[in-house]
Design brief:
By secondary structure, the chain is α/β, with parallel strands linked by helices. The protein has helices at residues 34-48, 75-88, 108-117, 131-136, 143-156, 174-187, 204-210, 219-235, 254-260, 287-295, 309-321, 331-338, 341-349, 369-383; strands at residues 6-12, 14-15, 27-28, 60-67, 91-101, 121-127, 160-167, 191-196, 239-242, 245-247, 264-268, 273-276, 279-283, 301-306, 327-328, 353-355, 358-360. Bound molecules: S-adenosylmethionine and iron/sulfur cluster.
C-alpha cells in the first residue's frame, strides 16, 4: 500500500564547525566537495526510481533539507536537487519545502535565491538569544546574528519560519532561558522547536561529562525548564502539537507531522533514513564512501530493517503519544489497556485521557510520553496478539 503522504528528506552535511553537543552526520572544511556531493544526491534520486523499495512513488507533498547546514550550500545547488527530485518523482504544487539555516549563513541575496529555488519554509538554528548561553553551547553566532537571520527571513517573505531552541544547557543561569523565550516571542515566529540538550556519546560534551567538566542538569531542573518553555509558548498562542514542537495555527511542520503519523518518506544523502510500509533503510554515513558508492553506480544503503506488525504497533504508540492527537487503539488493544492496573492508574489520575479509542497525553503530561508508551507496549506485548506474529 502506498501512503497518501510522501516526504523527501535530503541531508546536507556541510557545517562551519562541529558544535560540541552535535552527533549528526556532519563534515567541516570540505566545501570543495559540495558540487560532487550534490551530484551524488541527484544520482541517488535517479537511482531511487529503480529501487524496488521506493520505485515510482510520487509526487512528494513535502521536502526537507536537513543537516548539517543546508544553508551553506550555494542556492543553485539546492535548485538543482529540487529540479532533479521534481523530474524523477514529482513535487506537488504548493508543497512545503523547508531548509535548515545556521544564523552565520544569513545573507539577503542567499536567502532570496533559496526562496526563488522553491524553498518556502526556513528553520533557523538559533538555540538561544543570550550570548553567554551561545558560548556555553560552543556556537559561533551571537544573539544579534540570530535576530538578524530571522529578520532577513521575514524580509524575504518565507511562508513559515521556525526557530530552534535548546534548553537544559549545563551551567546556564536560570534567567537566561526566560530572556530567550521573551525575546523570541517578540519576534513572532510561526513555529518553535524546543529541545532539551542531549549529551550524545562520542561528542566533546560527552567527553567533558565523563571528565567531570560538564555539570549535570538534574531531572527536576530539566522538567522545570520544559514546563517554563511550554507554559510561555502556549500562553502566547502556540499549539504544542508534538512534545518538542510548537506552532501558530496553520504552521505545523507538515513534513515532520507526516513522518510521525505514518507517512512514507525517501531519505537521500549521507546517513539519511527512508521509510515505506513494511521497511526502513538508511545510508552510509561517511562522505567519501557515500560519494564513491554513487560514482560507482552502487547502492549507498548501509542497512535496513523489516517493519513487521509488532514493530509497526510499537512505533505507532511511541510516536503517537508524543503528538497532540495521541494514538488510536484497535479494539483488542483497548480491551488489554483497560484491564491493565498500571494503565488504569494513569487514566484515573487524569494525566492520560481516553476519548472513544484514542489515547492522549497533552500539556505537561507530554513529559511522561516515553514512560507511558513503554508501559502500554509491554501490556500489549503480553496480552494482544498481532496479526502475523506468534
Ligand atoms: C540538525 S541541526 C541543524 C541546524 C543547524 N545546523 C544549526 O545548528 O543551526 C537541527 C537542530 O537540532 C538541535 N540539536 C542538535 N543537536 C542537539 C542535541 N545534542 N541536543 C538537543 N538538540 C540538538 C538544534 O536545535 C538544531 O538547531
Ligand atoms: S548543531 Fe548544526 S551547525 Fe552544529 S555541527 Fe550540528 S548540524 Fe552543524
Amino acid at each position: 500500500m502506498v501512503a497518501d503522504r510522501l516526504g523527501l528528506y535530503v541531508h546536507i552535511p556541510f557545517c562551519p564547525q562541529r558544535c560540541p553537543y552535535c552527533a549528526f552526520a556532519v563534515v567541516t572544511g570540505r566545501m570543495d566537495m559540495t558540487e560532487g556531493y550534490v551530484q551524488a544526491v541527484c544520482d541517488e534520486l535517479v537511482w531511487s526510481a529503480s529501487s524496488p523499495s521506493w520505485g515510482n512513488r510520487g509526487p512528494f507533498d513535502t521536502v526537507f533539507f536537513g543537516g548539517g547546514t543546508p544553508s551553506r550550500l550555494a542556492p543553485k545547488l539546492i535548485a538543482r536537487i529540487l529540479e532533479t527530485a521534481n523530474r524523477i518523482h514529482g513535487i506537488r504544487q504548493g508543497a512545503e519545502i523547508t531548509l535548515e539555516a545556521n544564523p552565520t549563513t544569513a545573507d539577503a541575496q542567499r536567502f532570496g535565491e533559496f526562496r526563488d529555488a522553491g524553498v518556502n519554509r526556513l528553520s533557523i538554528g538559533m538555540q538561544s538569544l543570550v550570548d553567554e548561553t551561545l558560548l556555553l553551547l560552543g556556537r559561533t553566532h551571537s544573539a544579534a546574528d540570530a535576530i538578524h537571520a530571522y529578520s532577513l527571513a521575514r524580509q524575504i517573505g518565507f511562508r513559515s519560519v521556525n526557530c530552534d531552541l535548546i534548553f537544559s544547557v549545563p551551567a546556564e543561569p536560570a534567567a537566561a532561558l526566560a530572556t530567550t523565550i521573551e525575546q523570541l516571542l517578540v519576534l513572532e515566529p510561526d513555529h518553535i522547536s524546543a529541545y532539551a540538550l542531549s549529551v550524545e556519546k562520542d561528542t566533546p560534551f560527552h567527553r567533558r561529562r565523563l571528565q567531570g567538566d560538564l555539570p549535570e542538569v538534574d531531572e527536576d531542573d530539566d522538567a522545570t525548564q520544559f514546563a517554563q518553555v511550554r507554559q510561555h509558548l502556549t500562553r502566547a498562542g502556540f499549539e504544542q502539537y508534538e512534545i518538542s514542537n510548537f506552532s501558530r495555527p496553520g504552521h505545523r511542520c507538515a513534513h515532520n507531522w507526516d513522518c510521525w503519523t505514518g507517512g512514507e518518506y525517501l531519505g537521500i544523502g549521507l546517513s539519511s533514513h527512508s521509510f515505506v510500509e513494511g521497511e526502513r533503510w538508511w545510508n552510509l554515513s561517511d562522505l567519501d564512501r557515500y560519494c564513491q558508492a554513487l560514482q560507482g553506480g552502487v547502492s549507498p544503503r548501509s542497512g535496513s530493517e523489516a517493519i513487521g506488525p509488532r514493530k509497526k504497533r510499537e512505533e505507532r504508540i511511541w510516536l503517537g503519544l508524543r503528538t497532540c492527537e495521541g494514538v488510536e487503539l484497535e479494539a483488542g488493544e483497548l480491551a488489554a489497556m483497560q484491564s491493565s492496573t498500571q494503565m488504569g492508574i494513569l487514566l484515573s489520575s487524569g494525566r492520560l485521557t481516553l476519548e472513544r479509542q484514542r489515547l492522549r497525553l497533552v500539556g505537561e503530561n507530554f513529559a511522561i510520553a516515553d514512560a507511558v508508551a513503554a508501559t502500554l507496549i509491554e501490556t500489549l506485548e503480553r496480552d494482544v496478539a498481532v496479526a502475523g506474529c506468534p
